[in-house]
Write a structure and sequence with these properties.
The protein is of the alpha+beta class and 384 residues long. It has helices at 24-27, 31-36, 48-54, 98-109, 133-141, 146-150, 171-182, 198-211, 266-273, 278-281, 307-316, 321-325, 352-355, 366-369; strands at residues 13-16, 19-23, 43-47, 59-65, 69-77, 82-87, 92-95, 114-123, 152-162, 165-166, 188-190, 193-197, 216-221, 225-230, 239-245, 251-258, 284-289, 319-320, 334-335, 342-343, 346-350, 358-364, 377-382. The chain is built from 14 helices and 23 strands. Helix 5 packs across helix 9 (266-273) and helix 9 (266-273) runs parallel beside helix 11 (307-316).
């Protein structure tokens, strides 16, 4: 099936040069791709200590985790033409960047006619340092120049489908084909992967994460499934997400938020806006210091920037638990030491399902008033 049969290119918005973006519901014509873009949900996030308790004995493929945006690459080609696009779980479609063309050329040279490939969209930083997710959010959404578009790379960790053959759970074969087609260099490449048992996982973690500063490791096992293991505390990240498991079998998608100030905020707010929609369907919580609110509701003055992005989160369906229960009340979690005016920077945004279990939510101003922190505590109590 040619790419024009699955993509309406006229609905893509030009951003810079040939590079274009759009929304899956608006421009993708194949519902199967809409469904399979969610394959990233198969990957469960764990911190190191939880992984040591949960990862069973067995043999694994262990890959270096690249800090970027999980993305599926869709390819269609023949001897005459070859094209590729990418679509992330949030439904953002991207096309016609240099890495798209490189992927299409390599697949065409290998004689491939169709492919669905999972990987990480990231930025090759000019300073040679490791990429961060906010780099790709900024560049992929609003590139400043052609050099920024040229810096986008795609690290492949799995081939889900190759010419109609399902390789999604045939890890050894998928990794071998990825290495043969893409190699380990260039804008599009197979990610560094080794094999080993459960003990080897933690040796590679120590080498790559502790020793070399990588974001984490991705592991795949025939019986265990797919996991990503990351540090629990990453101080220079603004949004850190974890899957929390409870003894009764319940699960919570927890995203701890600490956003920078003013002009540096949009990439992180856009990243939250592009979260996989399943977060709103499950038990999920965004909580922390957003450094953001709504003027005259969360502040005494009209001083917030990018308010519309915060409001878009609420329109998506996230519920500000404290505001929903105190619609007419004004309470501030931080005060300017110079002007003495207050702001409510700290928020707990619940998915609708989890919001039904909130038993109490309130600000504890004692720690701020005692000088232990410049912010008040935001406490939430969640029932069964």
């Amino acid at each position: 099936m040619p790419l024009e049969k699955i993509l309406d290119k006229s609905r893509l918005k030009p951003l810079l040069g040939d590079y274009r973006v759009g929304k899956a519901f608006d421009c993708l014509l194949d519902p199967e791709i809409m469904r399979r873009r969610q394959l990233g949900r198969m990957m469960i996030a764990l911190d190191l200590e939880t992984a040591k308790k949960r990862i069973p004995v067995g043999d694994y493929f262990i890959s270096r985790k690249i800090d970027g945006e999980f993305t599926c690459l869709v390819y269609r080609g023949n001897k005459r033409t070859a094209e590729a696009l990418t679509v992330n779980p949030g439904g953002t479609v991207r096309a016609s960047a240099p890495f798209h063309r490189e992927a299409a050329e390599l697949l065409q040279a290998a004689g491939v006619k169709s492919a669905l490939i999972g990987g990480e969209l990231y930025v090759n930083r000019p300073d040679g340092k490791r990429p961060w997710v906010h780099d790709v959010v900024r560049v992929a959404r609003k590139p400043e120049d052609q050099a920024a578009v040229d810096s986008l790379g795609f690290g492949i960790f799995n081939i889900y489908d190759l010419d109609g053959v399902d390789l999604s759970m045939r890890y050894a074969e998928a990794i071998e084909k990825a290495r043969a087609i893409f190699g380990d260099e260039g804008r599009v490449h197979s990610v560094e992967t080794v094999t080993g048992d459960e003990l080897a996982i933690f040796k590679q973690y120590a080498r790559w994460v502790d020793g070399e500063g990588a974001e984490g490791v991705v592991i795949r096992g025939d019986r265990a499934g797919v996991f990503k293991i990351k540090p629990r505390h990453t101080l220079d990240l603004a949004v850190v997400g974890f899957k929390v498991y409870f003894p009764d079998g319940g699960e919570l998608n927890l995203l701890a938020v600490h956003l920078p100030l003013k002009k540096k905020q949009p990439p992180f707010l856009h990243a939250l806006l592009e979260l996989d929609p399943y977060h709103l369907e499950e038990d999920s919580l965004l909580i922390g210091d957003f450094n953001r609110g709504i003027p005259f509701e969360d502040s005494e003055t009209k001083t917030f920037e990018h308010t519309h992005l915060f409001q878009q989160l609420l329109r998506q369906g996230w519920i500000d638990a404290w505001r929903a229960r105190n619609p007419d009340k004004r309470e501030y979690s931080w005060f300017s030491t110079r002007l003495k005016n207050g702001y409510c920077y700290d928020h707990a945004l619940f998915s609708p399902r989890l919001n039904q279990r909130v038993e109490n939510v309130y600000y504890d101003h004692g720690v701020r008033e005692a000088g232990l922190s410049d912010h008040s505590l935001l406490k939430v109590e969640i029932g069964e």
